[in-house]
Amino acid sequence: MNEQQITKEGLEELKRKLSFLKIEKTREIAALIKHTASFGDLKENAAYHDAKDKQAFLQGDIKDLEERIRNAKVVEKGSSGKVELSSKVTLTLDGDQEIMEIVNPAESNPTEGKMSYESPLGKQILGKVEGQEFDVNISGNKLKCKIQKVE
Asked: With the C-alpha atoms ordered 7, 10, 16, 21, is the resulting torsion angle positive or negative?
């Protein structure tokens, strides 16, 4: 896997998820396997096989998170004045003010104001500077956009 740019907060969230999976979920599934094994003949014990499948998926998720953490490159907020990964951007979009942080796709959460740099709007505002006005195309709609502030 290639190096993946991520914010400091995003990396911390990945580490929290990994810890949860390794400790809580692993313990939970181990107990489930032990419980379902007590049902009898393991060859025909569907609950046991389901629990073992859950364990395999969990191990895959843990491996994936470990790799993502290992390949993560934390991007610090720059002082270039340009919109980039980890920038907090205040912009006007067709007259409505929006405040959002530009993040890695895995961190994206529109309800928390976190927009992926790979989203349609994210792609169009990367590299723009404060005061810059331009048109953006979102879902076939042409909207007026102005970068008010980049932090």
From this structure: negative
The pLDDT of residue 74? 85
Burial 81-101 (b: 16+ CB within 10 A, else e): ebbbbbbebebeeeeeeeebb
pTM of the prediction?
A: 0.65
Where are the chain's structural domains?
4-74, 88-150
Cα(77)–Cα(22) distance, rounded to whole angstroms?
31
Which CATH architecture does the domain made up of 88-150 adopt? Roll (3.10)
Q: Give pLDDT tens digits for 69-120.
A: 999 888 776 666 789 888 899 999 988 999 999 998 888 998 999 999 999 8
In CATH, what number does 4-74 get? 1.10.287.180
Q: How many CA atoms lie within 13 A of 78 on its CB side?
A: 15
